[in-house]
Each structure stands twice: as C-alpha cells, then as structure tokens.
Amino acid sequence: MIFLGFKDLYDFWKLLYPLTFVTDAYETEIKTLKKIFFEANYILCIFYINNDILVKLKSKIKAEYNRENDLNNDNEENST
Questions:
Q1: What is the tens place of the pLDDT at every residue in 57-70?
Q2: Tens digit of pLDDT for each residue in 16-54?
Q3: Radius of gyration of the chain from Cα atoms?
Q4: Which residue, 9, 14, 29, 30, is the most exposed by fewest CB within 10 angstroms?
Q5: DSSP line for 31-63
Q6: From CA 35, how far away is CA 12, in angstroms rounded?
C-alpha cells in the first residue's frame, strides 16, 4: 500500500509526519490515511469539490434555464 510506504519513508528518515492531507473524495483513501496517519487533519481539495458540484448540478441548472426561457429538448434538437 502506497500510504504505508509513505509512512515508512518518514520513519526511516526520522521526519515528522504530515499535519494535513489534501485529498479527493475517495472514501477508501481517506479511511486508509486515517488508519496510518491518525493524528493528521484531512481536507478535500477544492478542485474536486467544485468538480462534484458541477457534475451534480449541471443538468439541474440546464433544466432550470430551459424552463425559465421556455425552452425544451424538442426545440433545441430542431435548432441544430
């Protein structure tokens, strides 16, 4: 496991463990880090937060825009 090897390097060189990890939202990655570096802080990368918001809201924003502008999928398909 990569994080265990990472910890081994810190131990070998007698370095202080990281105080904070910036990660994406992979639950297994966060759980693994918490087991190995249990005293560290864990925060999510803003890139991944923004990306998740855009992915989840894109269709809702488009539907709302189309509704407010009296557009529907049939009109869009005919105009292309």
A1: 888 888 888 999 98
A2: 999 999 998 889 999 999 999 999 999 999 998 888 888
A3: 22
A4: 14
A5: HHHHHHSTTSEEEE-HHHHHHHHHHHHHHHHHH
A6: 19
